Amino acid sequence: MAYKPDPAGLKLRLIAAQRLKAVLGGEHFVPLSSFDLPDGRDRALANRLITMALRRHGQIDAMISELLEKGLPPRAGTFEAVLRLSLVQLVFMPELGAHSALFLAVEAIKRDNKARHLSGLMNAVLRKAQSNSARYGLMDDDLLLPETVRDRWTRAYGAETVTQFAHALVDGAPLDLTLRDDDPELVEALGADHLLADSARIESRDRPVEALPGYDTGRFWVQDAASAIPARLFGLPAGSTILDLCAAPGGKTAQLLKAGYAVTALDNDGARLERLNTNMARLGYTPYVVEADAATFAPGTPFQGILLDAPCSATGTFRRHPEVLRHRSAHDIAGRVRLQQALLTNAFRCLEIGGTLIYCTCSLEPEEGEAQVDWALHALPGLELAPIAPAELVGLEQAVTADGLVRTHPGMNPGGGKPGMDGFFVARFRRTR
Questions:
Q1: Closest among 354, 341, 404, 346 to 241, alpha carbons compared
Q2: 252 assigned binding-site residue
């Protein structure tokens, strides 16, 4: 029998379905790489389908509820993932063609031993979805955010701001960079816009980061505009000793070295430290690197400054990682709050009297931000708040609260440009005794 090649686009669909299935099962979304799909166009399309399925998850839930009266079939392999990808194509990416959405979905199911008996159901469901695609494309934006998340954030930020969050979820995140030098020519060559301080933004690009001008020579590193704020707030003399806790992959480490500090970069994950070392080598920076537990690390000499970018729920990164909206429960957040308190306690121990401690999280949860400030001021005698002034964040004064804290969110417009930045919290302390 002559060999019959797979239909065009099927491999892409199969690989995308496996990755989406893993994320639906609780894994962190990692975009497909050239190892997964060597062809750049196929890879870009597959990643776009997956991310759209994650961004539109709530709306797709509503579609599935209507299309499958008995709900999703149990123990059905990749059925759900293939269905979600196909609904994305039918409703939100119609330019790809309805016929290919149906055909590839059925073919993908036939190649899954656990789902092949459902190929007829897949075909019927998608034909029904096709006839309703125009109506599905107008679904309420309130469905984009899980109800518990929307209610929680509405209490914290207000309904109008949360509507901006929903729009930011659909739009995704541009590429923000921190520049090694003041380099207007590089900004122009990158097709970027200047944002704040040494941050620049590329709204859209047609190539991977590694192929951008200046990457190989270490003239920039990828870092969201919000993430770049904390390291700028020390205001210490050049040469001051700074401990960067939970440092990998090293964006803030690079900022601190650029500012002229003597930096110790600490992380408890050897693989992540390898990535930090690779990044530092590309940028031409040489921190002192330590693999240790940030909750128990005991230096011989206390540091003049400590930057604690604490592990957190990461809900502020939902534009790039929409899965966090459904993977983070109240129990998860509570566990991270306890870890943050342990790290804050040890950071205080590692700080010299008169030293500066900056605490930050990429979280939109008040429990991981403002509430931790209240806890630290009561639990750690000798730690006082060192308020941040609006003048320290030129172009983003709106992010500085009346208490001298920094709270950013995706509805803010850094530098007065288009809205969009990670949700971030920053507090600055000083040790007085």
A1: 354
A2: yes
Characterize the bridge pairing of strands 262-267 and 288-291.
parallel
Among residues 64, 50, 39, 66, the alpha carbon closest in space to that of 16 is found at 50
Helix ranges, 76-183 (H)? 79-87, 98-110, 119-131, 133-136, 147-157, 159-171
pTM given for the model: 0.93
What pLDDT, on a 0 to 100 scale, did the predictor assign at position 1?
45
Give phi and psi for 169, each to the nearest 5: -60, -45
Kindly list the distances between the CA atom of residue 253 and the CA atoms of 128, 194, 259, 410, in Å, as whole numbers in the listed order.
Answer: 53, 22, 10, 24
Give the strand pairing for 220-222 and 175-179: antiparallel
Q: How many CA atoms lie within 13 A of 183 on its CB side?
A: 18
Taking CA atoms, 273 is separated from 110, 248, 300, 379, in Å, by 43, 6, 22, 31
Q: Which CATH superfamily is domain 223-431 in?
A: Vaccinia Virus protein VP39 (3.40.50.150)
Which residue in the block uniquely carries the two structure tokens 């534009």?
319
Average the pLDDT over 236-255 and give the result. 97
- Please state, in angstroms and as integers, the Cα–Cα distance from residue 252 to each residue in 152, 266, 307, 406, following that order: 30, 12, 9, 17
Please tell me whether 246 is known to bind a ligand. yes
Alpha-carbon distance 33 to 21, whole Å?
Answer: 17
Residue 250 counted as an annotated binding residue:
yes
Convert the pLDDT of each residue in 272-309 to its tens digit.
Answer: 999 999 999 999 999 999 999 999 999 999 999 999 99
d(CA 152, CA 176): 28
DSSP string, 201-216: EES--SS-GGGSTTTT
316 is in an annotated binding site: no
Cα 319 off chain centre by: 6
Query: Given 312, 350, 360, 362, which residue is catalytic?
Result: 362
Amino acid of residue 43: R
Q: What is the pLDDT of residues 387-421, one digit of tens each?
A: 999 999 999 999 999 999 999 999 998 887 777 99
| 360 is an active site residue | no
Residue 267 labeled ligand binder: yes
Residues 6+ apart with CB under 8 A from 302: 350, 351, 352, 355
Number of H helices, E strands in the chain: 15, 12
Torsion angle, alpha carbons of 69, 10, 57, 316, to 10: 160
Highest CATH level, class, for 10-139 = mainly alpha
Largest separation between any pair of C-alpha atoms in the chain: 82
